[in-house]
Hints:
The chain is an alpha/beta fold. It has helices at 14-21, 28-43, 83-96, 107-122, 138-141, 155-159, 170-176, 190-195, 199-223, 229-246, 249-259, and strands at 2-12, 55-66, 70-75, 101-104, 152-154. It has one domain (2-259): Nucleotidyltransferase, domain 5, CATH 3.30.420.
Amino acid sequence: MNILVFDIETVPDVETGRRIYDLVEMNDAKVADAMFAKRRAESNSNSDFLQHHLHRIVAISVLLRQDPDKLRVASLGDPNSSEHELVSRFFDLLGRYNKPTLVSWNGSGFDLPVLHYRALKHAVVASDYWELGEKDQSFRWNNYISRYHMRHTDLMDLLSLYQARSYVSLENLALLLGLPGKIGMHGSKVWETYQAGDIVKIRNYCETDVLNTYLVYLRFELMRGHFDAESYQRECHRLRNYLAAKGYPHLSEFLSAWSNSDGCTPPP
């Protein structure tokens, strides 16, 4: 097993918003409000979810699982890291850890396109990620870019059979499986939390999303026969032990919520 589960958290790119909408005289909060209002008008709906190129990344969290027993959960960089550093660190991980399988929830629909745009903005080199078989022939048939390859396993996309009408939120699927779901906050609160200066809270929240995604992935691997019941339980217990050993408050809260559920024991 050589996998890298990932998730990003974003805020409005007010710098670009100022340029696009000529909002030079406004502060960040007012620029963001104007961007949200323009998005609602453009989409003819109540949704103010910005287009991908107008998101700025403020946190990237990952879970690395490598054989035989390496497991780590972390947020890249530190609370003061620039977006350039976060994006660079993410793509550097692919080479450092021997081109692992990427695992995400809606990574194809959101996280990776945003990472593409931000990498372009900051001139970040990501050659391992963009390999399509020119140097490594194995990537011709299984790469990070193709929707139907497994080197990037977007669980939301795959489980819905690539049908938008079948999509489900990570929160709802986690609860369906008896997993903790959202802990501490919700994605809709990231901008508010960022304005309050609490990057640590955003990073912690992002890590719990990665944990939920990883546990869904373990169940998926059980479903498709890559784990038997014993190996599935072993991976769950490995994660339990890791969270208990770390002892960080947000990880302990996740572990407590998980321990009060049946999310490690699939129904017979």
